[in-house]
Each structure stands twice: as structure tokens, then as C-alpha cells.
What does this fold into?
Amino acid sequence: MREYNLDRIDLRSDTVTQPTQAMKEAMMSSVVGDDVLQDDPTVRELEEKIAQMCGMEDALFVPSGTMSNAIAIRAHTSPGDEIVMERTSHIYQYEGGGYAALSGVSVALIDGQKGQLTPQSVAKAIRKAEGSLGHYPDGTLVCVENTANRGGGTCYSQETLDAIAATAHEHDCAIHMDGARIFNASVKTNTPVKRMLRDFDSVSICLSKGLGAPVGSLLVGSKQFIAKASRWRKLFGGGMRQSGFLAACGLFALEHNIERLADDHKRALHLANSISKMNGFNINLDSVETNMVYIDSDMGAQKLMQELANNGIDVLDVGPTAVRAVIHLHVTDEDIEQVIDVFAQLAN
Ligand SMILES: Cc1ncc(COP(=O)(O)O)c(C=O)c1O
It folds into this structure.
């Protein structure tokens, strides 16, 4: 589906998608109200729909994934607590240190495999003030990212998710999933999100990534948790007024754009398989599970980005020698073949 008017192939992220005509029509026909006054019916419909899909009690529509995670951390913890997460996780790497600034918590980092935690590593990382003569902070929250973005877009096994949640709860910690791309994981592993989240206390889900909505994320959890989260959303400046226009895009995305994520995964794998056979490029094919391809290049990331850009292809650098290509709903089979051709020209 190539419904945007750029003549470039934009693989920088799945956040670059633009609303399709059908999504715009859903937006235009939506009924809106003032969501801060709690009377926007479209926002409410979206929140109720996602809560039901996740098997949780309630949800909150927020402007971004970053805000959703920040609110979750604030609602689950108290200043001086510690949270546990993987070293390459988005919350730690790319959310401006919000956990420290907005929640006053420290972080216990775990070096994972392909961006993933294990229950054993989580058990080891959780510290408690009690029994430490007050030396340790109180570990009160574990954050799991699924799919794991910097892990390559990898998916946790259900067994591991269940075991990590059990470990967190055994240690009196809440467990939050940064499920920015949870539907990529759900489609890839053929697991309903309700099952995936059975033992989780909260999840943040992005509508503005592979699902193709222009703006917005959903924080989902118990009624009590969402009531708390709602106060923090207001305090963080995330209360929106006629946000039903945006929620309408989210509803459209949940109804039309989940199953098709499998196409993105297929295209990503084809791209990865093809490039991995070329000299001068290196891809860990084991990590290519969903819509992302991390490519290591002998020519270095900056030169590769420039060469690709000269050929109408945009990617992001993620290190001195590595770039990332992300497949999304505007990327067609023809685009993938074109990208493969350009890489072939650059191979040595
Ligand atoms: C795993 C993950 N979590 C959270 C976010 C934050 O989302 P946003 O860009 O909407 O703040 C991203 C964004 O790319 C992400 O990849």
C-alpha cells in the first residue's frame, strides 16, 4: 500500500506512516467531545476496546508511547524506588531519562540476549531496602519490552513472559510491558494479546507505529491503576480535548491493521535474507523476527546512509557501523526489490 506522496522509500521507522484515505474518512466521521471532561465517546470506545482485547479492566488514551511508559512508571512507583529493565530498552535508552526526572526512580539494568530479560536475571536484579540496613532502594517495578526493538524486533516466548511476571510478583514488584509493538509480537507468535498479558499489571501499546495511526498510545491496566494514571496524565500535560479524531484512527487501526503486520514481517525477512548474502553487510538473521532489519556494514553507517539516501532510500543509523530498516504499511514488494537492488550495487 503506497498511500503517501513521497517518492522515497522511508525505512527509518514504522512511525513514519501517514493516515490512509480510509483512516482519514473514519477520522472525519467520528463523534467527539471534551476528553478532559470525560465526554468524548470515541476516546471512550477506543479505551474500552483495547481494555477488552488485553483482558484488563480499563485503559487511557495518551499522546505518545514515551508518555505512556512515563505515566506507568509514575503510577507504579514512589520516588526513591528502583525499576528493573534491559540495558537496550527504549525506556532506558530513548525516553530522556524520564524515569529519573518524572518519577525519581533509579534503574537496575540487565544485559539481555536479543534485548530480552530472563526470569533468573530479573530475580538477581531486584533489590529491597528491607534487610539492607536501608542501603538499597526498593525494587518495585519490572519493565519488559515486547517486541524488543534494539534486540532486533524480537518476540518473547510466552513461557518466559509468564516466568518473568511470576518472578516480579514473588518479589512484590509490579510488572509493566512496553508493548509499543505488542501486535507485531502477537501476530508473529500467534498469541492473543490477552494471553500474552495474563499476568501483567499494565501495558503500553502504540497506535502510531506498525498500526499506522498518526498519533497516540494506550496505557492499559486495572481500574485502580488507570484512575491513578489519569491523574498523572493530566499532571504531565497529556490531557487532550477533542482527541476523538485521533482515537478514531486508533479504532480503525485496531480493526484493519493488525493481521496485515504479517506482510511487514515477511518483507523484512526477505530483505534480510537477501542482504545477508551480499559481501560487506552482516545481519544476525536470528534476530529478524518481525518488521525490523539491523544491518552492519563494512563501509560504516554514515556512508551507507548517504549512499542509500542518494538512491531514494532512508534508514536510521544505530551505531558506527549499523543501520536499521523498518518495514511498515507503506512499503510494497516492489520497494523491497528496489532496496535489494541498491544494496547489491553497494556490495563489494
Ligand atoms: C519500544 C518502544 N517503546 C516506546 C516508544 C516510544 O513511543 P513514542 O515515539 O510514541 O514516544 C518507542 C518508539 O519508537 C519504542 O520503539
